[in-house]
């Protein structure tokens, strides 16, 4: 074992520790943004091919709720299940099955991604989402009825 | 070194790299609790190429491996991921190598490569998925990237010292490039010390 450890130089350890710390940077930014908008309710946003298709509220009521995404054109199939305040993907027809093997998620910022089916399941908080959406609305595209339907 | 020898060497390395990345796909991941984490065995070949060939040729090895591995067992989206990962890890390893053998070792270089490979893949994933939160998975992946990178680095150390043909190419490279010369000298010294201690 000593033979192997002798091959490591001081610079290696510095670089590796530096990179490890830097890899937490996205998480730190995310937590910072989240904590600057407190008092929000948690919900799950399900998006397929970059468009949000459904939302589910995360309430710890012990009930089971299912949402099935089917896209016959691209042959995408995912069954998303909410059990209480946890959410996971129960079935999918993707090749790698990584999304089915992911642990159930429950906290803001956690995601389940199914890359072959271009599906993202993401836990978000309501107030932070409004600030993200605001710049996208301009006079021409703004339609109050769409806004209302999304909120309900 | 004749032009043909060099061409053969590049072809051989690329073939090894393609074979390694295909073999890696057959075996189950050694990190089942972290989906997406891989050993990155073909990084062994990238490193060997980097140490024994000029920049231009080692870049060719990386390119050929990317294209062939995609053609033999991948889709366009896997190509995008491995392209971003391979390029980012190749160039960051080049940068770290510039620090010289006095400051870093092959293990550090390959650990950097392992982490940057994951960074590249996650950047592509978050661009395709149009979601920043994919990047939150980075700490998990880079932790396993370091472990895998250290193992790969050890393997490269042994390859450079003990495979006679690779060692010969290492020596050739040392004649042509002062940086390679320093790396070769460090590896040679270590080999002599090992022999003495035996």
Detailed description of the structure:
- The complex is a heterodimer of chains A (152) and B (198).
- With 152 residues, chain A is α+β, with helices and mostly antiparallel strands.
- Chain A is 32% helix and 32% strand.
- Chain A has helices at 2-5, 10-22, 25-35, 98-101, 126-133, 144-151, and strands at 42-48, 51-57, 64-71, 76-83, 86-92, 111-114, 119-125.
- In chain A, a hairpin with a 2-residue loop joins strand 4 and strand 5 (86-92).
- Chain A starts with a helix and ends with a helix.
- Mean pLDDT of chain A is 76; it is low at 128-152.
- Chain B is mostly helical and 198 residues long.
- Chain B contains 8 helices and no strands.
- Chain B has helices spanning 3-26, 42-52, 55-73, 76-97, 106-128, 138-162, 164-176, 178-197.
- In chain B, helix 2 packs antiparallel against helix 3, helix 6 (138-162) packs across helix 7 (164-176) and helix 7 packs across helix 8 (178-197).
- Chain B is globular, with a radius of gyration of 17 Å.
- The A-B interface holds A 4, 7-13, 15-16, 19-20, 23-24, 26-27, 30, 47, 50, 98, 101-102, 109-111, 113, 115-116, 118, 120, 122 and B 35-36, 77, 96, 99, 103-108, 111-112, 115, 119, 125, 128-139, 141-143, 146, 154, 157, 190.
Largest sheet of chain B: none
The span between the termini of chain B is 33 Å
Radius of gyration of chain B: 17 Å
Q: What's the order of the H and E elements of chain B? A: HHHHHHHH
Low-confidence runs of chain B = none
Strand count of chain B: 0
Oligomer: heterodimer
Individual helix count of chain A:
6
Please tell me how large the radius of gyration of chain A is. Answer: 20 Å
Query: Treating each run of at least 4 consecutive H or I residues as one helix, how many helices of chain B?
Result: 8
Helix content estimate of chain B: over 70%
Sheet of most strands of chain A: 4 strands, antiparallel
Mean pLDDT of chain B: 88
| Overall number of strands of chain A | 7
What's the mean pLDDT score of chain A? Answer: 76
pLDDT < 50 runs, ≥5 residues of chain A: 128-152
Apparent shape of chain B: globular
Q: In which order are the strands of the major sheet of chain A placed?
A: 2-1-7-6
Strand content of chain A: 25-35%
User: What structural class do the secondary elements of chain A suggest?
Assistant: alpha+beta
Count interface residues per chain for the largest interface: A-B, 31 and 35 residues
């Amino acid at each position: 074992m000593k033979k192997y450890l002798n091959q490591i130089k001081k610079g290696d350890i510095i670089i590796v520790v530096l990179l490890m710390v830097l890899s937490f940077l996205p998480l730190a930014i995310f937590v910072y943004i989240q904590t600057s908008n407190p008092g929000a309710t948690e919900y799950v946003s399900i998006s397929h091919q970059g468009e949000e298709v459904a939302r589910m509220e995360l309430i710890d009521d012990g009930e089971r709720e299912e949402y099935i995404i089917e896209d016959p054109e691209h042959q995408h199939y995912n069954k998303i299940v909410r059990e209480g305040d946890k959410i996971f993907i129960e079935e999918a027809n993707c090749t790698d099955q990584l999304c089915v093997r992911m642990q159930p998620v429950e906290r803001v910022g956690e995601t389940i991604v199914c890359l072959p089916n271009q599906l993202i399941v993401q836990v978000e908080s309501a107030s932070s989402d409004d600030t993200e959406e605001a710049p996208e609305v301009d006079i021409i595209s703004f339609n109050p009825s769409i806004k209302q339907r999304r909120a309900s | 070194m004749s032009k043909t020898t060099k061409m053969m060497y590049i072809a051989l390395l690329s073939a090894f790299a393609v074979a390694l990345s295909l073999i890696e796909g057959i075996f189950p991941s050694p990190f089942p609790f972290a989906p997406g984490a891989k050993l990155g065995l073909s990084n062994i070949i990238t490193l060997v190429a980097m140490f024994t060939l000029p920049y231009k040729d080692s870049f060719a090895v990386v390119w050929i491996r990317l294209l062939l591995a995609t053609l033999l067992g991948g889709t366009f989206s896997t190509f995008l991921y491995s392209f971003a990962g391979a390029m980012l890890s190749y160039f960051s390893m080049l940068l770290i190598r510039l620090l010289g053998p006095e400051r870093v070792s092959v293990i550090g270089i390959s650990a950097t490569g392992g982490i940057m490979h994951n960074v590249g893949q996650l950047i592509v994933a978050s661009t395709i998925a149009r979601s920043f939160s994919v990047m939150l998975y980075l700490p998990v992946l880079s932790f396993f990237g370091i472990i895998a990178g250290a193992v790969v680095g050890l393997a490269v150390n042994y390859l450079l010292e003990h495979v006679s043909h690779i060692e010969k190419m290492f020596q050739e490279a040392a004649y042509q490039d002062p940086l390679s010369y320093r790396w070769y000298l460090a590896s040679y010294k270590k080999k002599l010390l090992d022999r003495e201690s035996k």
